[in-house]
Amino acid sequence: METQEKLYFAPSAGRSNEKAQDYLIFLIPGNPGLIDYYDPFLSTLHTLLSGFRDSKFHLAGHSLAGFATTREDKKSLLSSHELAGLQRQIEYIDDLLYEQVDEIWEASGKTPKVILMGHSVGAYILLEIIQRHRTRIEDGKKDFDLIGGILLFPTITHIARSPSGIVASALLSIPHSPGIANAFVRCLTYLVPATVLYYLIRALNFPEHAARTTTAFIKSPSGIKRVLYLAKDELDMITDDKWGKEIWGAATEPGTNSKDTINSNLVFYWGQNDKWVAKKTRNELIAARGYVDAKSKSTSTLSSSTSSIASVDPWKPSMYVEDQKIPHAFCLKHSEIVAEKVRTWVENIIQNHNER
Question: Which of 1, 69, 183, 208 has its CA 20 to 30 A from that of 35?
């Protein structure tokens, strides 16, 4: 069993007119960075977006550097022993995004407008890519239109303070723990055929796509080591809110930077009981950075003071706290529910962008 480097869904043929605008929705996965986990999610979202006559949607996503289990991970150019930390992953995904934009331009003759999606640490990478994009624009360089971002179950500040982060920090403080854990799992599963391992994982109530992906991941020579190496880097690097107002949306107020193409079209979707995000950290970030619709049921768990503070600054990102008990790893069993929400947010981002 092998996993893929890339998923790509082309616009549905024959459903849009010749003058339809091309959009690229580009997904950045969480850790473990295997794009195969998101196949049902992207497939469902592609179907939901296929009925728009004035828009052509290209959906794409890539595994993080070194995570694909194909015999030759051509894109990441990592050796079997080389590990990629968080900064390397940011650079890698940024390069792949430009490659994907270029591929669409070469095929259609049009440069797509881009909407980024990031899950978990992918949301942190998303904000870093926005920062890089903004820097290029401010330096006077020509760039594509980055019109919005959707951050799903984001881990963007103080991940080490979360319930799972506290446990992970303790385990990863042990010297050489990524290598030790990788060797232990390899020894444990060495004599177990992939097919048998697959059915054992299925018995744990994993859906087919997740069981297949997890089997390939566990049987890969250094999968566990890569996950834990990146996780340790996340715990060390993802601390304080490091982005300025220009990333959070203040630069889209009247009279500010007219070159900005992100507008303030950022949407955050937080888990109600996400074990990788401390509730205190989440609520403080929403109060400081978010625009929350006080009428939204998804924010009913927040204090009224939080909503009233946020509501006076409509240029801030929209932030929602889910109320359906969706877990952090939504891509395992809740792809359809989240895809329905993302469809609405994509529509809103495009509408808001066109109105500016």
Answer: 183
Distance CA 177, CA 172 (A): 6
CA gyration radius for the chain?
20
Give this prediction's pTM: 0.90
10-residue mean pLDDT profile of the chain (356 residues): values are 88 74 96 96 96 90 88 51 90 96 91 96 96 86 89 97 97 95 93 94 96 94 94 96 77 43 76 95 90 51 36 72 93 96 94 81
Surface-to-core class of residue 203, CB atoms within 10 Å of its CB (0-12 exposed, 13-18 middle, 19+ buried): exposed
Neighbours of 87 (CB within 10 A): 11
**Cα angle 153-44-96, degrees, rounded to a multiple of 5:** 65
pLDDT of 305: 32
CA angle 335, 27, 53 (to 5 degrees): 80
The rounded distance, in Å, linking the Cα atoms of 215 and 200 is 9
Please state, in angstroms and as integers, the Cα–Cα distance from residue 149 to each residue in 75, 111, 319, following that order. 24, 18, 12
Sheet arrangement for strand 146-152:
6-9, 55-62, 21-28, 113-119, 146-152, 266-270, 318-321
Q: Report residue 226 as tokens.
A: 């890569």
